Amino acid sequence: MYRQNAWLKYDNKENKEVMKFSEGYKQFLSFGKTERLVTKESIQLLNEAGFKPIEECSSIKKGDKIYFINKNKNICAFVIGQKPLKEGFRILGAHIDSPRLDLKENPIYEKNGFALGNTHYYGGVKKYQYVTIPLALHGVVCKKDGTTVDINIGEDEKDPILGITDLLIHLSADQMAKPLAKAIEGENLDITLGNMPISDKEKQPIKANVLKLLKKKYDIEEEDFVSAEIEVVPAGPARDYGLDRSMVAGYGHDDRVCAYTSLKAILDIDASQLQKSACCILVDKEEIGSVGATGMQSLFFENAIAKLLSLAGEDDPLFSARIALENSEMLSSDVSAGFDPLYASVNDPDNAAYFAHGIVFNKYTGSRGKSGSNDANPEYYAFIRKTMDENNINWQSSELGRVDQGGGGTIAYILGNYNMHVIDAGIPVLNMHAPMEIVSKADVYEAYRAYKAFLVA
Ligand code: MN
Ligand code: MN
Description:
- By secondary structure, this protein is an alpha/beta fold.
- It is built from eleven helices and 22 strands.
- The strands form five sheets. Strands 1-2-3-13-4-14-20-16-18 form a nine-stranded mixed beta sheet, sandwiched between helices.
- β11 and β12 (247-250) form a beta hairpin.
């Protein structure tokens, strides 16, 4: 069902299904505030569905369900199908990192009666959106004794929240005259940690009090922040959005919405229906270029495929992995720019993604002359269209905005390097990269259905 509103398709029962599916997603999103937390809850869902970690497998056979974890921040799950692995995989991919603020290595300082936390932003953020909103801290502190402490402050109703101050309007004459990109400086995105001195004997009594509280709650010292990953993210759970509850508001839909729907598809798929083996890969670091050990450019994925082929008895698993990847098809999923009636002019209306019109396919993304894009082959796109229509799935096609308005990239081109068929797919989002992003429940559900249909097509 090309470019049609999905809500009109659902009868009462289906409408309830859509709402029910979104409840599971809201829970996932509310817990998964960081890539580590998404990995953690994904492992739990995989275990519940009978998947086994690769470390427990000594051979593989049809119907096996296996997963790989990479450094607690990136995950890859497989269901073994009827065909030999070398004939390729059906791959669902998405990223689980989201734009945010990270605490610096030496974050805590005291100034003019306040203890503050110094941050460095991660990914593309409009800095002004991060001031005067409730913020939470999530992450890990790794101590020299080899132990890791989980940090979680600001989500529980009884917890304090944190935040970043902004200037009062009364004294903002200079600030208001600046362009939006300059009104809030990156170095000024520092969170307020406290205002209560511990005693008049300390040189920095307010900072000392904050450190004392951290020591008491987490048994960590100031220097431990050097080997830590603490993310400052919007506090609070995902919620229904709109009087009709047709949408979900939350932090990190980009790209946890595609991650959840892709993961659910592989969790729910009937292994006996699979010809090619199914794969779902969830990666980190997309928002800063897919770099590093846990990003899509890492050899982790290729190595995982080679390990599977080795377990399947292939003599030359690395070469076989290349062949298997070349014979694969992928939906590289990331959120699309939803058409916003308040900012209609940034889109070409005939080539834009509309809320509730289903999963979006982007033949290409990129900037300017499609720079940086994986331009999907039309032969492959035809197969995708056929699969969507045969399964009565609402789907649409779009570009990321008008020509020369901006643009963006995804992980698709990296998988394209293996010479597999890849197309960008995903779910339209409003407020992309803002602390509160919006998606349509109908699009979430149609994407899930699309992923399942793709795996068995
Ligand atoms: Mn994204
Ligand atoms: Mn993004």
